[in-house]
Amino acid sequence: MGRYEKYSMKFPQPGQPVRGSKTGHPTMALLDLLGRRMSLRVLWELAHAEQALTFRELQAVAETNPSLLNTRLKELRAAAIVVHHTGGYDLTEDGKALVRLIMPLDEWAIAWGARLGATCSKE
User: Fold this and answer.
1) In 3D, which of 77, 101, 10 has the Cα closest to residue 19?
2) Are 73 and 108 in the same domain?
3) What radius of gyration do the chain's Cα atoms show?
4) What are phi and psi of 93, to 5 degrees?
5) Burial level of 30, CB count in 10 A (0-12/13-18/19+)?
6) Which SS3 state, helix, strand or coil, does residue 90 take?
7) Same domain, residue pair 9 and 45
8) How many other CB atoms are found less than 10 A from the CB of residue 14?
9) Which residue, 6, 36, 61, 90, has fewest beta-carbon neighbours within 10 Å?
10) What is the DSSP letter of 18?
């Protein structure tokens, strides 16, 4: 078993060992969750959608396979960051607050990319 495999198959929770932290400090648990493949992409797509997205809509815009998307949605729902209702998937109030904290990184990254001569896509 690899160094992080014992943590990778469960939802990262504050107070429980996670990748990078034996104590499960809340910040480390959040970084473990957000560092998982497609977690940030799901948050990005839901934050930029005009309304809740169905599973198929989210799968299409996130450009991912259904198995991985299902796993990430389960984790993000368990973390109370994403909610599922009759209209589809959306961010919870905590999820919206998290996205508001992350968005300054987008501004910084766009400026950084421009300084490096990169062109910015709409994504």
Assistant:
1) 10
2) yes
3) 16
4) -60, -40
5) middle
6) strand
7) no
8) 15
9) 6
10) B
Per-residue pLDDT of the chain (123 residues; tens, 9 = 90+): 344 444 444 778 888 888 878 888 888 889 999 999 999 999 999 999 999 999 999 999 999 999 999 999 999 999 999 999 999 999 999 999 999 999 999 899 889 999 998 876 655
Q: Is 122 within the bounds of a domain?
A: no
The 3-state secondary structure of 32-79 reads HHHCCCCHHHHHHHHHHCCCCECHHHHHHHHCCCHHHHHHHHHHHHHC
Region for residue 88 given its phi and psi (left: phi exceeds 0; alpha: psi -120 to 50; beta: otherwise)? left
Interior/surface letters 73-105, b for 16+ CB within 10 angstroms, e for the rest: bebbbebebbbeeeebbbbeeebeebbeeeeee
Q: Do 30 and 88 reside in the same domain of the chain?
A: no
119 DSSP assignment: P
- What global pTM score does this model have? 0.83
Residue 88 phi/psi, 5° resolution?
A: 130, -150
Residue 123 lies in a domain: no
